[in-house]
Specification:
Radius of gyration: 26 Å
Strand content: 15-25%
Oligomer: single chain
Distance between the termini: 64 Å
Largest sheet: 6 strands, mixed
Number of helices: 11
Number of strands: 12
Order of helices and strands: EEHEHHEHEHEHHHEEEEHHEHE
Strand order of the largest sheet: 2-3-1-4-5-6
Helix content: 25-40%
Shape: elongated
Structural class: alpha/beta
Length: 350
């Protein structure tokens, strides 16, 4: 009879049955058995796996000691000679999510054993650790705990068995997952050929150039004829009024701005400048309408092809701006556009 795969599971004080906020400051402890959601995780893993220890820690305690407690958790994983580590799932619980992400990342990076957790996309632990560990995607709350544990169990077993793990979009995990270790003593051409052969023969491999796993955005549907629609202009090309009154930075934007052009038939070159690095803006400086096409939109209004044009445009500089910051910009601009009863947007870039 073969030995069972040894598993260590991490949970917080709430799922361990110790209490809620009143016990959130309790320190780390270990139960040498499956506890709380671990009981269902054990069922999902099956008879070939055994949860030999459950590490429990209060959410406040680990959040206040996030640099040290995950290392203590790792020592427990070592002590029990674990071959698999599972944390949570933490769904959208902030401190718990940080703990799940941090412990999974530490075990993944330092012990090199299979490890996985599961969190909601907006959990702070997701942003911090999605490119350092496998973090499966979940809903906003724990109502589907059993279903998520089922997914965690299946994914964990695939990791243990050395199954091919595809990108996050295909597999349902956030970000890029664990960072790959690149053996630079092997020439790049050889590494490339090896990966190509592994892919061809359906062997497990991981690309050295990980693409971010962006969320799927549904295509919007215009609910009225275009000739009745109110249109707005938005750009990430950095067009600002002459003198850059709001000090728009040319890279790594921290905010977006909106500027009104009133009833002008177009934007005059003497009134605008560009605050954006990374593209030849000479043509925009000569005619700002090439980036924010007010003149063309006015013509479309007169021809009856669109209903009206919002007399304000929104602008930022997209170059080197992080995706998460850009997402916040988009949400903020969309909120303002809805307040102006805008039906559709033309977004121009460099």
């Amino acid at each position: 009879m073969t030995d069972k795969i040894r598993v260590v599971h991490y949970i917080n004080q709430f799922y361990a049955g110790m209490g809620g906020e009143d016990t959130a400051s309790v320190g780390m402890s270990v139960e040498e058995k499956a506890v709380g959601p671990g009981l269902y995780l054990q069922k999902e893993l099956g008879d070939d796996y055994e949860i030999v220890a459950t590490v429990i820690c209060g959410d406040n305690y680990i959040a206040e000691n996030i640099e040290t407690v995950p290392l203590d958790v790792m020592e427990a994983v070592k002590k029990y000679d674990a071959q698999l580590f599972v944390a949570g799932p933490g769904f959208n619980a902030g401190r718990y999510g940080l703990a799940c992400g941090a412990t999974t990342a530490v075990v993944t990076e330092q012990m090199k054993i299979p490890a996985v957790t599961a969190l909601y996309s907006e959990n702070p632990g997701t942003d911090l650790y999605k490119d350092r560990a496998y973090i499966l995607q979940t809903d906003n709350n724990a109502a589907k705990m059993k279903a998520v544990l089922g997914r965690v169990g299946k994914f964990a077993k695939r990791l243990v068995e050395g199954d091919f793990i595809a990108d996050g979009k295909t597999e349902g995990y956030h970000g890029t997952g664990p960072a790959i270790e690149i053996h630079y003593d092997i020439p790049a051409c050889t590494r490339g050929i090896d990966m190509l052969l592994d892919k061809y023969f359906h062997r497990n491999f991981k690309t050295e150039v990980m693409m971010p796993n962006h969320e799927e955005i549904p295509v919007p549907v215009l609910d009225k004829p275009l000739k009745e629609a109110k249109i707005a202009l938005v750009t990430d090309g950095g067009l600002v009024p002459k003198g850059n009154p709001d000090n728009m930075v040319p890279t790594n934007s921290k905010y977006y701005k909106s500027y009104t052009f009133g009833d002008a038939e177009g934007l005059a070159a003497e009134d605008y400048e560009v605050s954006h690095q990374g593209y030849n803006n000479a043509f925009v400086l000569a005619d700002p309408n090439r980036l924010v096409p007010v003149d063309a939109m006015r013509t479309l209004v007169k021809e009856g092809k669109i209903g009206s044009l919002l007399d304000t445009y929104f602008t930022t500089a997209g170059v080197m701006t992080p995706m998460e910051v850009g997402k916040k910009f988009g949400e903020g601009i969309a909120k303002e556009l809805k307040e102006h009863n805008v039906d559709a947007v033309i977004l121009t870039s460099t």
